[in-house]
Amino acid sequence: MTSMISTAEASFFSDSLSSLDTPSIRADGRTPFSYRPINLIEDVSVQCNGSARCQLRTSSENILTDVIVGCKLEVEQRDFDIHGAKIECSVDFPPAALIALPYDPAQLYTSYLNMIYGPLGSSKQLRISSTHAWVIYIDAVVISASAGNAMDVICMAVHKALCNLKLPKTAEVGYQRTKATDTAVPIEVETSSSVPNDSMVAETGIQGLLWHNRPSKTKSSSQAYDFELKDTDAEHGDQLSIKDFIPIVITINLIDQKMFLDATLEEESISSNKLILAYTEVGKKVANVIQTGGKSEIGFDLLRSVIREGAKVAGDLSKQL
């Protein structure tokens, strides 16, 4: 990130972070792995299927990072078995939020979020039928970024919004196709169908309207071509069963191989390297490592130490979220 502070200020922040003291004390009195107060609010938008607001506060009321995230569900016609479901993220920085920043990072953060949360589309819970799947649109609006560490705040809000998201219950509906030379296999036909079954078989070769989610001992080769909503009330939907696989994301900054979390804007501007780490299963597995804004290479030993320290933080953070 382009420095927005003077040389003297940069030296002051750098000296405090790279101090040989253990642990080093930062300019605001925090230790390297300390977060500032975080306020996380869920269900902030009734128009979304899942929403949250995350605020990173400082001692000044005018300096904070404030993010609102909303998740919307839509149905898309796509072959889930081939393409999976789609998770599409977008990040927006209104003009008021850009005042404190040297450039607009919206496009960059959008690409990061798509890399981190895109793999969740492989969850079978997002499959509706053989031809339809849920699409989750994740929209993040950064109201203020003056306290820095916008990436972590965005991802905390996304995590909470996804954990609260509810999928409407659906039932697969399809048609059992039969060959003229074959003997029809006994099946269960929906009695509410308005089409007489005998004439339906004679004219179309289609035996009847089936509910494929009903258990059957006979093996069928048919597929569900359509679906219906069983309950349109979002409050009665199913929460995602993959909560442990929703990434916990933390950003670790480096100065002279010294690691620290929750960087202020001033600390971000003097960092020699920055790593965005995404962990799953309560910090037990690292799912993504993204280097951004690096001024030098990161050696393997240092990278391994960063991942190990990040896993501890992610494990603790997952308990709070």
UniProtKB/TrEMBL annotation:
Q: Does the keyword Cytoplasm apply?
A: yes
Going by the UniProt record, its keywords in alphabetical order are: Cytoplasm, Exosome
Q: Which GO terms describe its biological process?
A: exonucleolytic trimming to generate mature 3'-end of 5.8S rRNA from tricistronic rRNA transcript (SSU-rRNA, 5.8S rRNA, LSU-rRNA); nuclear mRNA surveillance; nuclear polyadenylation-dependent rRNA catabolic process; rRNA catabolic process; TRAMP-dependent tRNA surveillance pathway; U1 snRNA 3'-end processing; U4 snRNA 3'-end processing; U5 snRNA 3'-end processing
Q: Name one GO cellular component term.
A: cytoplasmic exosome (RNase complex)
Q: What is its main location?
A: cytoplasm
Q: Which Gene3D superfamilies match?
A: GHMP Kinase, N-terminal domain (3.30.230.70)
What compartments host this protein? Cytoplasm; Nucleus, Nucleolus
Q: Which PANTHER family match?
A: EXOSOME COMPLEX COMPONENT RRP42, EXOSOME COMPLEX EXONUCLEASE RIBOSOMAL RNA PROCESSING PROTEIN
Q: What is this protein called?
A: Ribosomal RNA-processing protein 42
What organism is recorded for this protein? Puccinia striiformis f. sp. tritici PST-78
